[in-house]
Amino acid sequence: MNVVGIIPARYASTRFEGKILANILGKPMIQHVWERAKQSKMLDDLIIACDDERVKKIAEDFGANVVLTSKDHESGSDRLTEIVQPLDVKIVINIQADEPLIHFTMLDSLARAILDEPSIAMATLIKKISNKEELNNPNVVKVVIDRNNFALLFSRASIPYLRDENVDQVYYKHLGIYAYTKDFLFTFKNLPESNLEKAEKLEQLRALESGYKIKTVETSIDTISVDTPEDLELVKKRLAEEQVA
Q1: Is residue 33 classed exposed, middle or buried when 0-12, 13-18 and 19+ CB atoms within 10 A define those classes?
Q2: Distance CA 238, CA 206 (A)
Q3: Which of 79, 129, 138, 191 meets the CB 3.0–4.6 Å disulfide criterion with 171?
Q4: Distance of CA 84 to the CA centre of its chain
Q5: Is 126 exposed, middle or buried (0-12, 13-18, 19+ CB in 10 A)?
């Protein structure tokens, strides 16, 4: 198969324990993510990779293809490799379990970026920042790109810094959804933790600091990553508004 989507679903969370099972308009958050990803035209399969029997049971109940993985993985990409190892697949898309507002077209555009340009090994989504408050929010990761839409740097800081305030600068934020070739996923997993990664706590910096390129794909769709109960309330409001519309 060409493309598989995997939703790494870790139950434990430092700031919001069990958030992936949080109720959103009558469904657990993980179900919203799965249902939206399932609409993708490019995915040949969609798998939830969880580390907790409670998540596995609930995912099975709503019809997902779900696999119980080790609790010892340090990152979502590590969890991906356990699932992907036996699969004959070209592209793997890492779909965050705390992104209940994800749209299937975001996944399709990432898949096409690699399928249309085989030299690309890793791709991710970005969006123009329209809310100035996001620039100084360390939970919103910023990205600077080159003229060919490859990432130059990711940071929690506001980058680039404007020495001259008269410059008309476009800022981009990073949406943490990735596509990899299967081969590069295992290369990436085995790269040493980089200095920038340690400083920023951003795993993708490991690839850049090791000399690999990350293609960025722009989307106009904004999402809300659920890191806190407050984020959850914002998602509930957005989804309720969508249902009314």
Answers
A1: buried
A2: 34
A3: 129
A4: 17
A5: buried
What kind of architecture, by CATH, is found in domain 3-244?
Alpha-Beta Complex (3.90)
Q: Which tokens in the block code for residue 119?
A: 């030299």
Q: Is residue 122 within 8 Å of 213, Cβ to Cβ?
A: yes
Specify the DSSP class assigned to residue 118: T
Tell me the H-state helices in the chain: 29-37, 53-61, 76-84, 104-115, 182-189, 195-200, 205-209, 229-244
The rounded distance, in Å, linking the Cα atoms of 153 and 209 is 9
**Looking at the whole model, is its pTM more than 0.90?**
yes
Mind listing the pLDDT tens digit for each residue in 116-128? 998 999 999 999 9
Backbone angles phi, psi at 38, to 5 degrees: -60, -20
* CA atoms of 244 and 237, how far apart (whole Å): 11
Give CA–CA dist 33/42, Å, rounded: 16
Where are the domains positioned within the chain? Answer: 3-244
User: Which of 1, 5, 7 shows the shortest CA–CA distance to 59?
Assistant: 7
- Distance of alpha carbon 174 from alpha carbon 225, whole angstroms: 11
Task: Check if the beta carbon of residue 159 is closer than 8 Å to that of residue 202.
Answer: no
End-to-end CA gap in the chain: 37
Structural tokens at position 173: 């934020």
